[in-house]
Amino acid sequence: MNSCVHAASKPRKSSQTSVLCLSSAGYGDDLKSIPPIRRKPILDHGTALTHSVSQSTAMAFAASDELLGTFVPVAVYWVYSGIYVLLGDLENYRLHTKAEENAKNIVSKWTVVKGVLLQQAFQIAVSLLLFTVITILLTVVISHRCTHCMDRTDRSLRVQVIKDESGAEKPQPSVPAIIAQFIVAMFVLDTWQYFMHRYMHVNKFLYKHVHSKHHTLVVPYAFGALYNHPLEGLLLDTIGGALAFLVSGMTPRTGIFFFSFATVKTVDDHCGLWLPGNLLHVFFSNNSAYHDVHHQLYGSKYNFSQPFFVMWDKILGTYMPYSLERRKEGGFEARPIKLKS
């Protein structure tokens, strides 16, 4: 049997302690010294917490799912809308002629590009700010609940948050669970956007100073889908997306795919084209023709639903049915059935 005592080492520049183990059989003849264990100087709690917060926040931004969920949909927006630009005018599939687009749209395409980039920059800033605040709050909570974390300031608390007690990364939900989360998120986002969108048309002040910016594009096109006032982007997209994410219970990784899909759907609804074989038109009756009706003067009080379903329009009496008809000069026209003679 061995008994252990601690003997202070000779004074050195760095604070050290030697652990000495005495053999009970030899009463010290077999004295062995374990290599000194260096102790970190006792840090002031405020200093340690500040260091921990700054370090965990920095590492949380290093290619996390939350960060990807912020930037990937932006990239998807420009890639998908860019595909429509590369396809050209496609006069035989347009819902409005090129002449109508040039005559009716109040703003230039360069103004639209700058406006979309401004809104996306604003949304990114808001998302990163919320992400930073949440990370700091989690760090502070964990630091106070786990006092020994003060001696582990070299570890990212963010890693502790996203990993379980065994240190293994938490598994992602099953495919059926992800599908269910998608459906719930789609319903929540549609509900939020329908009522907010409709209110922006009912409230004259909000329409004049906020939502009318989007309606300067009477003839929509793909990369003008998010040409909105920053306040509208915050209310409809940022808050609506956050609610859909939280209520559905999806993981940040699932959120990357959901918000990328929602972005594709939004761009497609504003593309101003009726392309054959478009799967989004097959699965969703809320499509480019449906939304085009809303952008026209006669349809501004109808078809508020976006971006997935049309249920709220049908339930609350704001649904305007239409028929797609061929134009003599080529292309299609979404002609409202209610106004059809």
From TrEMBL:
<keyword id="KW-0256">Endoplasmic reticulum</keyword>
<keyword id="KW-0812">Transmembrane</keyword>
<comment type="similarity">
    <text>Belongs to the sterol desaturase family.</text>
</comment>
<dbReference type="GO" id="GO:0005789">
    <property type="term" value="C:endoplasmic reticulum membrane"/>
</dbReference>
<dbReference type="InterPro" id="IPR050307">
    <property type="entry name" value="Sterol_Desaturase_Related"/>
</dbReference>
<keyword id="KW-1133">Transmembrane helix</keyword>
<feature type="transmembrane region" description="Helical">
    <location>
        <begin position="67"/>
        <end position="87"/>
    </location>
</feature>
<keyword id="KW-0472">Membrane</keyword>
<dbReference type="InterPro" id="IPR006694">
    <property type="entry name" value="Fatty_acid_hydroxylase"/>
</dbReference>
<feature type="transmembrane region" description="Helical">
    <location>
        <begin position="175"/>
        <end position="195"/>
    </location>
</feature>
<dbReference type="Pfam" id="PF04116">
    <property type="entry name" value="FA_hydroxylase"/>
</dbReference>
<keyword id="KW-0456">Lyase</keyword>
<dbReference type="GO" id="GO:0005506">
    <property type="term" value="F:iron ion binding"/>
</dbReference>
<feature type="domain" description="Fatty acid hydroxylase">
    <location>
        <begin position="182"/>
        <end position="318"/>
    </location>
</feature>
<dbReference type="GO" id="GO:0008610">
    <property type="term" value="P:lipid biosynthetic process"/>
</dbReference>
<protein>
    <recommendedName>
        <fullName>aldehyde oxygenase (deformylating)</fullName>
        <ecNumber>4.1.99.5</ecNumber>
    </recommendedName>
</protein>
<dbReference type="GO" id="GO:0016491">
    <property type="term" value="F:oxidoreductase activity"/>
</dbReference>
<feature type="transmembrane region" description="Helical">
    <location>
        <begin position="121"/>
        <end position="142"/>
    </location>
</feature>
<dbReference type="GO" id="GO:0071771">
    <property type="term" value="F:aldehyde oxygenase (deformylating) activity"/>
</dbReference>
